[in-house]
């Protein structure tokens, strides 16, 4: 286990840039991972290498051939990381942009009068796309309400509103507001039990950093991530699509290959950094298991990450050492329940008597980086039903430490003592 191995924690932290200090602020604890995870040092090096190469893919020269090999390797690496034995991977502008493209394509190819189903817990990346393109395509949008108390939606919730005329379905893998993970495989099964031919598209952006993706087990048609939230960098998104979604009529250049989904020349360095990410998961899996198969090591890494992040969030909620946890602080309310097994490395709270932006500022002044979520177009779907105008998001990742949790608890406790 990671928490039982201080040397491993040190080795993990040594692989990330700015793990304990901000180049603008100085020493700080990074609990803003849901807004964008730390970047692997190898990703920084790889980005510099490919940024300097002037050549494009698709030419007949050694550099172009090498670039194509890099892209093909990255796609193969992503297939191992996400356990996708079919379909294809491609890059776009961002995870949000890719979700819009996938959902748009599914909607405009659906029969008139069919339905699109999604849930109220979803990030607007998928929810906005589904509602917009359902309206344009003449489809009915069906909203599956999430449970305010648990901050999640279940397969049973979807099943209650499913009908055979559902043509498109969207699923959020993990909420960036509540921190809860959804059972994608179970929700997909509930959808296909009633509408087996529906196109199912998953927003995996928040979930990806936690290291547990298994596309073959989900029986879905699309899965999008934002690499900057999974140890790579900003500037692009990455999507997987099934063979049958690949084959649907979609935006493309006239007479271009029918299976192509990318527009223009993509950044080879973006693909190359995803190989760095996969190599990192592979390395970590070798540190926490005796597995020899690469996919098995990645699975082991995902399990270890989940276990360690559960350890961190449990300490944040229940306390560590002589420090009380958030649940024992009278001035603090934890969103979505203190004992929620679906939690993935994230705890959102409200501090009574203080506006959340003021709490974030107070913590930041002590070198603890958190974030305010407001009841706006990003988070209003979760916060407004709770009667909240805002909350504080404390998002952790497996390179954070129990010592950092203790510092945050001491600082939050002091807010109630003042």
Automatic annotation (TrEMBL):
InterPro entries in the cross-refs? Aminotrans_V_dom (IPR000192), PyrdxlP-dep_Trfase (IPR015424), PyrdxlP-dep_Trfase_major (IPR015421), PyrdxlP-dep_Trfase_small (IPR015422)
What is the protein name given in its UniProt record?
Aminotransferase class V-fold PLP-dependent enzyme
Q: Where in the numbering of this chain does the Aminotransferase class V domain appear?
A: 29-406
Q: Does the keyword Repeat apply?
A: no
Alphabetically ordered keywords of this record: Aminotransferase, Pyridoxal phosphate, Transferase
Pfam families named in the record: Aminotran_5 (PF00266)
Task: Tell me one GO molecular function of this protein.
Answer: transaminase activity
Instruction: Give the lineage.
Output: Bacteria, Pseudomonadati, Pseudomonadota, Alphaproteobacteria, Rhodobacterales
